[in-house]
Write a structure and sequence with these properties.
2 copies of one chain form a homodimer.
Chain A: H1 3-23, H2 26-42, H3 44-60, H4 65-71, H5 75-90, E1 98-103, E2 109-116, E3 119-124, H6 129-140, E4 144-148, H7 154-170, E5 178-180, H8 187-192, E6 201-205, H9 208-217, E7 230-234, H10 240-252, E8 261-267, H11 268-284, E9 288-291, H12 293-298, E10 303-304, E11 318-324, H13 327-337, E12 342-346, H14 350-359, E13 364-369, H15 376-379, E14 386-388, E15 396-398, E16 404-415
Parallel strand pairs in A: 3-4, 3-6, 4-5, 7-8, 7-12, 8-11, 9-10, 9-11, 12-13
Antiparallel strand pairs in A: 1-2, 2-16, 14-15
Chain lengths: ~425, ~425
């Protein structure tokens, strides 16, 4: 069977299974997820056997220790996958929700009902826990899911998939509702991305390279974010202690993730006191600073920022810092160099908080809070399938609801159009 | 200036103007739309002068009389364009709406605020009124708009655009918020479709050929529908008089549009009495029937349907008709041949109405009402920018809200992540 035929038949089976998934009750879906959680824990030895193969192959290919660590499935991580599934089981089911209903002058009752998207394809790299996490969210929202992980985790992903599929079978749900692509050829992704008749949405998770590859080759709608160049703007009226606390947290609490701050903008009226203060605090935490000329004049020994620093996603203990004339200049900087991910203003001015909220149209805009809260769990969505920095369908962290759409429902008594 | 440079500079100007548009108050936007309406009526002679050039060119190119009629801008049509703008001015402004707000355990107040998409590109054919209609909806929802109509209406479209732009100028709104592409080269569309950094959404309106061309060449998200193969299913328990009324209305009230019925499905328990009845009624209205073998056995002289008839969008006084074993068979037929547009069940059974609603995941699902109500105005959206039969972002008729997205807003008091 050619790769194209193989992917087509896999996707067609998913589409057929999606019809069953859409009709499942919330109770059955929750039971399924809890059973899956128990099964993962019970199968820990089996999972770790498979995982060893991936780790051995990774060592052979010379993967960095950090990468090997991300790949490893110890008991704690298996327990975390199981807990994740149980947590999704406790979340409200978006399917069937009637989000609005109204009556037309002719008596027609019109409403909008939430339904699953259908078939969701997840293309991801590295961490095998994504296999269970993404499956849980897609299934709970009534979708079928096709999982295509990276070759470095193929044995682990297939083992997780096999355990989860057994639980579908036990509840008489078509197994094709959850499929892990077996081949590690990259061409398989290309074939999947052509199947617009069968697959409703593609979510790539991984590095910018993978995401661009998916976007450029997909005929199916893609929800993605390329990078997070998040800003904190310290307004003239900011409480300096609060500004320091938020800036430090946004930069150093976990620098390698997309909602960490990459550039700090400081109002010129507060720069003389705040820039030296935050520079000292950052340096204590081992953060390397790249400053604009004004900053360099205020702090001796600061590296001068280059033009390339402003749009850069460091994902590291490095921070670009710039003095701006006012709120509008901060907004203009964000507009030019930002990634529509997350921006925060630290201010005690009501007017400026309102103005920043109004003018900044990133997916998450904050007042007096750390950018690190830009996350589905932290914002209260319960769980996160990804984050979107393009505006269509979803914008910002995505939870269960983002894996659904709404159909119009119309109840009549024989009305016709005149 | 090359075409690529020209389109890029036009789109960049639109992006800059979108920033101003996003901040305009509802009052100013409404004033703008009403001024535009008055200006169109006042400029009727000028518009008709331009329209004459298109009509003359059309006649020269041998356009069919129906096409020439669609192109013509008489006083009535100009008044209708103006009324359309005034009506959009009366609709609620979706921008700024806080659709949900909740408090997190740490005190963070999280909400989702509706914001404009940014820059919307409309690629359309023929009718020049789309220029004013689409501009009104895009501007009211706080977006900038790039309009690219067909070459056959270029003089009319440019004249309408010029009049509308003057009204932007009079209210000190950047003119680039509304731009009509001047060149009629098709390559201009290709250049626009590449500009994913500047344009947020493309809506193609026209024939299937145009839509497929846009989808295949766009790097920007596209919202579209290819065709409407709408079904009416007459259940065993249907009131036959109601079923006849709805079927006739769905087929003949305006057969050339996407929400007209193309296939009638009849439950076998009611077929013996209903198929001859509806066949006679349809034939009286001049509808040509293509039936399954069971139908042909019930009505003498009915043409036998071929396999190609079931997925066909006739857009004409022609109807495919099929007897099905039960509701599930009807759903399976819709699933296989439908276009996710609009389907109706005629029934007096509560259980079957619920089951049909549950199993059919088209964008509009109806009970006891004509498919012809599947339209933004008829369903109460106020005005319609198009209809989507793909599930991402919008599904079904699209109003002002579909031209917006939601950002997360977070109000804190200095919270950091532990």
């Amino acid at each position: 069977m050619s790769l194209a035929t193989e992917m087509k038949s896999l996707a067609s089976a998913a589409k057929a299974a999606a019809r069953t998934m859409a009709g499942l009750s919330t109770n059955i879906k929750n039971e399924l997820l809890c059973n899956m959680a128990d099964a993962l824990v019970a199968a820990a030895p089996e999972l770790q056997e498979a995982n060893k193969k991936d780790l051995a192959a990774g060592r052979e290919r010379g993967l960095a220790p950090a990468m090997l660590d991300r790949l490893a499935l110890d008991d704690k991580r298996i327990a975390a996958m199981a807990d994740g599934l149980r947590e999704v089981a406790t979340l409200p089911d978006p399917v069937g929700e009637m989000s609005a209903q109204w009556r037309r002058p002719n008596g027609l009752q019109v409403g909008r009902m939430r339904i699953p998207l259908g078939v969701i394809g997840i293309v991801y790299e590295s961490r095998p826990n994504v296999t269970a996490d993404a499956a849980g969210l897609c299934l709970k929202s009534g979708n079928a899911v096709i999982l295509r992980g990276g070759s470095e985790a193929i044995h682990s992903n297939l083992a997780i998939g096999a355990i989860l599929k057994k639980e579908l079978q036990r509840l008489d749900i078509p197994e094709a509702a959850l499929q892990v692509v077996e081949t590690t050829e990259r061409a398989a992704i290309l074939e999947l991305l052509k199947l617009e008749e069968e697959i409703d949405l593609i979510i790539p998770r991984g590095g910018e390279g993978l995401i661009r590859f998916v976007v450029e080759n997909s005929r199916i709608p893609v929800i993605k974010h390329y990078k997070g160049v998040c800003h904190v703007f310290v307004d003239a009226s900011a409480d300096e202690e609060m500004a320091e606390r938020i800036s430090l947290n946004a930069k150093v609490q976990r620098p390698g993730v997309c909602n960490a701050m990459e550039t700090l903008l400081v109002h010129e009226d507060i720069a003389k006191s705040f820039v030296p203060r935050i520079a000292a605090a950052m340096q204590t935490k081992g953060v390397e600073l790249r400053g604009c000329p004004e900053c360099c004049a205020l702090v001796s020994g600061m590296t001068a920022a280059k033009e390339e620093d402003w749009p850069e996603e460091y994902l590291d203990l490095r921070l670009a810092i710039k003095v701006v004339a006012d709120l509008d200049a901060a907004v203009a900087h964000i507009d030019r160099f930002g990634s529509l991910h997350t921006e925060t203003i630290v201010t005690s001015s009501y007017a400026n908080s309102q103005r920043f909220m109004q003018l900044v149209n990133s997916s998450v805009v904050m007042v007096n809070a750390s950018t690190r809260f830009s996350d589905g769990n932290q914002l209260g969505l319960g769980a996160e399938i990804g984050i979107s920095t393009t505006k269509l369908h979803s914008f910002g962290p995505m939870g269960l609801e983002d894996l659904t759409t709404r159909k119009f429902v119309v109840f009549g008594e024989g009305q016709i159009r005149e």
